Amino acid sequence: MPEGLALEPISQETPTQEGLVCFRMGDEWFALRIEEVREIAPIGKVTRVPNAPPGVVGVMNLRGKVLTLYDLGVTLDIPMSLDKKASQILVLDLGDPELEVGILVEEVSQIREVSRDLLEENPLPEGFRAWSSYLRAIASLDGLVFNILDLRKAVLSLIPDQGKGPE
């Protein structure tokens, strides 16, 4: 190596920012890490599936692929607001490109970078709310409290044969 040239060590630091997709279900605000969401899509024609397990809303065609839709509110025990209904789908990235899964949400409010310093890890004791065991953290942003979900616990528990998540 020529004199005076030195390679900079690759930083192994944890990033100080985390990207979040923030959304509303019922009267509660939630978020998922941006890398867990493949895309945000409008709701198309949904076909109900006979004898589907609780939480399965149905299936729909999304650009030639069959997307299974889940109502995360079933797991979280959160009904949609009486004056609202689901208007968007978060298409999830579950680590398997063949697994086309979406969750219904009433509103996607923002996609933003948040300082990890603003995240309060493991914020609620088990059983505090019906869905507290599905939380990874909470963050207060712009006067609202966002419940940041643990995707493996919250969503994969709805999918048959996926409850443990990919190993």
Condensed summary:
With 167 residues, the chain is mainly beta. It contains two helices and eleven strands, in the order βββββαββββββα. The radius of gyration is 18 Å and the shape is globular.
Structural account:
It contains two helices and eleven strands; from the N terminus they run βββββαββββββα. It has 167 residues and is mainly β. The protein has one domain: CheA-289, Domain 4 (OB fold (Dihydrolipoamide Acetyltransferase, E2P)). It starts with 16 loop residues before the first strand and ends in a 13-residue tail after the last helix.
Shape: globular
Order of helices and strands: EEEEEHEEEEEEH
Tell me how many strands there are.
11
Question: What number is the mean pLDDT?
Answer: 80
What portion of residues is helical?
under 10%
The chain-level structural class is: mainly beta
Report, as a whole number of angstroms, the end-to-end distance. 42 Å
The CATH architecture classification is Beta Barrel
What does the largest sheet look like? 6 strands, mixed
The CATH superfamily label reads CheA-289, Domain 4
Low-confidence stretches: 163-167
Report strand %.
Answer: 35-45%
Count, helices: 2
What is the CATH class name?
A: Mainly Beta
If you compute it from the alpha carbons, what radius of gyration comes out, rounded to the nearest whole angstrom?
18 Å
CATH topology: OB fold (Dihydrolipoamide Acetyltransferase, E2P)
- Widest sheet: strand ordering: 8-1-2-11-10-9
Give the tally of structural domains. Answer: 1
